[in-house]
Amino acid sequence: MPELPEVETVRRGLQPAMEGARILKAEARRGDLRFPFQKDFVARLQGQTVTGLGRRAKYLMADLASGDVLLMHLGMSGSFRVVRNGDGAAGDQPGQFHHPRSEDRAHDHVLFRMSSGADVIFNDPRRFGYMKVIARNALEDEPLLKGLGPEPLGNEFDAAMLARACHNKKTSLKAALLDQRVVAGLGNIYVCEALFRAHLAPRRLAATLSTKKGEPTDHARRLVEAIHAVLNQAIKAGGSSLRDHRQTTGELGYFQHSFQVYDREGEKCQARGCGGIVRRFTQNGRSTFWCPKCQK
Fold first, then answer.
1. Which residue(s) pair with 64 in the sheet?
2. What CATH number is associated with residue 25?
3. Is residue 234 domain-resident?
4. Which of helix, strand or coil describes residue 235?
5. What is the pLDDT of residue 2?
6. Same domain for 121 and 94?
7. Beta-sheet pairing, 130-135 with 118-123
8. Does 64 lie in the same domain as 173?
9. Which among 163, 174, 252 has a CA at the least distance from the CA of 209?
10. Cβ neighbour number for residue 103 with a 10 Å cutoff
11. Which SS3 state, helix, strand or coil, does residue 231 take?
12. Which residue from 105, 130, 175, 231 could staple onto 171, CB 3.0 to 4.6 Å apart?
């Protein structure tokens, strides 16, 4: 599933086509994706101006002049294509993903024709993505958003907040970071990378980030710094393009060249003076990459 840097890259790629433009035509080409479309889905979008395009965790959020918000999630295989001059045969695909995105036009399920001269097309072969129109004043009660933790790049996310969230937790540190209630938007790739940079073992108890009084330990401070660093670096690089996926400029994302443990099983640890070997094990059904020598 795309993680925060990839979704943020998609947002930035869609911004020129959607933000400030009016939706001249909205088209849902089937009745559902992961969930059924609302009966008034098209009617609430058509003719509306997109006043802003934001992101919350792994969700894209388009603010509409009507006071509604279009909530969009890519799911496992979803991607957007920006096509100019109505030519649906080609287009730029913003965002880079670990798993390949489909180029089969049979899976083009949603289309937005924008007054900017662009068609924004959502393609999703596995149909795990979803879209929903929500009134802005009802967002706080929206089940899909309710309970999400803080944004890892937001001002409120710091060592003290992470320590409070992990206080007395009996789960592993990696499982805690993947819990969207603890921190929103992190996924397997960037959790592995952040733990490595903080020199913390993925099996370490999450509770070790706080003292008995709930105050942050040095582990918590190192981890927050590592999360900030790895996400900012990945966003700057345009996401993780492990295969042939391109930004709207046509350039590949390059963060995969900065991976220090992810997908490097059997290779020598890149930490200075370590000399350990990167290992992989399955944790909560996902591959975890780490260096047993320098991650404690």
1. 50
2. 3.20.190.10
3. yes
4. helix
5. 76
6. yes
7. unpaired
8. no
9. 163
10. 12
11. helix
12. 175
User: pTM for this structure?
Assistant: 0.85
Tens of pLDDT, residues 140-152? 999 999 999 999 9
The 10s digit of each residue's pLDDT in 186-225 is 999 999 999 999 999 999 999 999 999 999 999 999 999 9
**Domain annotation covers residue 130:** yes
129 and 8, same structural domain?
A: yes
Going through the chain in order, the beta strands assigned E by DSSP cover 23-28, 50-56, 59-64, 68-73, 79-84, 108-114, 118-123, 130-135, 279-283, 286-290
- For residue 295, tell me if it sits in a domain: no
Let me know how many helices (H) and strands (E) the chain has, helices first. Answer: 6, 10
Predicted pLDDT at 100: 54
Distance CA(167)–CA(42), nearest Å, equals 45
Helix (H, G, I), strand (E, B) or coil at 249: coil
**If we measure between CA atoms, which residue out of 21, 184, 18 comes closest to residue 94?**
18
Closest CA to 129 of 287, 2, 284, 285: 2
Q: Rounded to whole angstroms, what are the CA distances from 149 to 164, 167, 175, 178, 206?
A: 12, 15, 14, 11, 16
Same domain for 284 and 163:
yes
Burial 104-127 (b: 16+ CB within 10 A, else e): eeebbbbbbbbebebbbbbbbbeb
Q: Which residues are known to be catalytic? A: 2-3, 58, 286
Task: Indicate if the pLDDT at residue 249 is higher than 80.
Answer: no
- Residue at which a domain ends, from 141, 173, 193: 141
Could you tell me the residue range of the domain that residue 49 belongs to? 4-141
